[in-house]
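#dry-run=false #mode=assembly
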Amino acid sequence: MIDLKSTPHSLIENFSLMKGLLSTYGPDSFQVLREQAFRSFSEFGLPTTKDEEFKYLSLKALEDGRFAPAYGATIDRYQVEQTAVGQVDAITVTFVNGEYAPELSSAHLLPKGVFIGSIRDGLAAHEGSIVRHLGEIATLKGKLGTTNDERFVYLNTAYLTDGAFVYLPKGVSLELPVHILYLTSADHGPLVSFPRTLIVLEENSDAKVLETYLGIEGVYFTNAVTEVFLGESAILEHTRFQDEQIESVHIGVNAVHQGADSIYTSNNVTFGARIARNDVNVWLDGEHTETWLNGASVGFGHQAIDNHTRIDHAKPNCNSFEVYKTILGDHALGVFNGKIFVYEDAQKTDAKQTNKAILLSPTATINTKPQLEIFADDVKCTHGATIGQLREESLFYLQSRGIPKPEAQGLLVYAFAAEVLEKITIPTVRDILEKALFEKLKESQKLPDQDGE
Amino acid sequence: MLEIKNLHARVEDKEILRGIDLSVKAGETHAIMGPNGSGKSTLASVIAGKSGYEVTSGSVELNGLDLLEMEPAERAAAGVFLAFQYPVEIPGVTNTYFLRAALNNIRRSRGEHELSMSDFMKHIKSKVLLMDMENSLLSRSVNEGFSGGEKKRNEIFQMAVLEPSLAVLDETDSGLDIDALKVVANGVNALRSPDRAIVVVTHYQRLLNYIVPDYVHILMDGRIVKSGGKELAFELEEKGYGFVEEELASKA
Ligand SMILES: Nc1ncnc2c1ncn2[C@@H]1O[C@H](COP(=O)(O)OP(=O)(O)O)[C@@H](O)[C@H]1O
Ligand SMILES: [Mg+2]
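#status=ok
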């Protein structure tokens, strides 16, 4: 008899094929990380809807799919320029199918001590920093929570090869934004890639980073992990834009470690894939930090978009503000789970969480769960959730100015998400994402033309 | 231009307009005055086509067109403009984009060609100047974070851009200091022309010093109880609405 359980899926199988190749990459400590992570992943396997953290998201596509290990594809500069983010003026680091693509990256004169490039190249001058942080930030070990689930961090780490590395030494402010661009083109059948990003901002440094995941063609699985370390008083504006191919799966974990007095802003823009899952985990490890988590997700057809966020208020006097918005049409499924843990020590925590959804069709659904777990007594924590239609007054206001109802509705749907994009302070990035949002909504929402703006 | 006959309207089961007759000819400016709750905003909303009001009898026509049969956007295309008592904030939509969508829709439904971006910008910049506003306002979201006075000014700015044939201004004077009031009045007066009509809704006479009406109507309890020339507004200011009530009582 065939025991189905013993038939490993491709994500497990690939490891024995890849092991030899993987071991040639990076210092010995990477090999230790990989082996440990693979053991942990194999032990737990892929999550199912019986697992609390994946309750609403079926990952059968990963179980059933035959995803080959990714190898490079050729994408030329022209193709990149044609994409939504092709015109962003930034220090760009591009990866194609997980492989660093220097020909699609841009060289810039950087301030002394700054590194922006691949992890592989970064190891030469920054091995200490990389080894110290990689894997350390994304872990949930020792953190509160009874349903912590790190399987997709394990999986990514098991296949750790290359990725992007950004390093700012003390006191450096970057003028230009950094753009980390992960492109996937699965033109020879389904593949899986494991992008890994490490951003280290030492004390008093300041940067703006755009991290983009774009699909060019095919069916694939992107399992991304990003780790962000902010030293004391460091400031990072981190925009993540995800627009994968429609039949693909994207599972990304963004883990952040904030030192005292640091300010972290995450603008998380998700247009999804067939299945898109984002985890944003922020660990507040010093007093007087500020955290802004902004999210805008848009899904149509049979897309599933699942946003999980957690903020660990482990120290006193920290503020966090969170606004997540979701627009769903057709049969799309949305999930929002927002955890806020306030540790015993973390007096004077001020945490505010809001999430809003607009459902454009009766067959679209959203599951929303704010989850506040508070172990300190002198704190201010609020959350609010609305699932709704558009406001009548706004609709009438637009109509009274001559804009017909369907167009007015479209405009308000656009505005609902555009309000999140307004938080982006890099003008070119904001403009580009507004345009991308407009295009994404245009067809279904009868939006009036925007050319020339 | 505007012919309202025996208009009755209710909200839920409450009758608010109880038989309004009003005739406004092209080139005229009418003021409608009345105490709070008398139905002024309801009248303005019914003209503009806001949902939630049930017209139980009567008619509203604009140049012979039955407004009550039209969608709000069609009314706007036909030339109706309502300056809201409480303008709505629309975060995420810039003034420029909003006005361009509005103007082009109106032009299209009139069979006119759309304005090119540069002609449109020329057009709105001249109105920015007229309304003594900052150009930066154009790239801001509609009314978002505006003070009460700024919102009112923005209403008149929109009116100036859309150049309606019938403008209904609902309490546009409230929340304005004297300088802003002059700017607003100036914007309204600039629109006055022989082929346009203006209805100013207010419960103070103050604005009428700057936008001088041809006729004044007093609305009480859902009916126009008295009409007269501009001197009626002064009389009201002086004696208060009480005098009208007394007059009505003595007639009864
Ligand atoms: N949407 C509504 N729902 C319930 N009552 C309303 C509504 N709009 C107006 N009313 C009532 O109708 C009456 C007239 O209101 P309104 O037209 O706003 O008066 P005015 O503008 O003259 O102050 C008031 O008693 C008000 O409470
Ligand atoms: Mg009113």
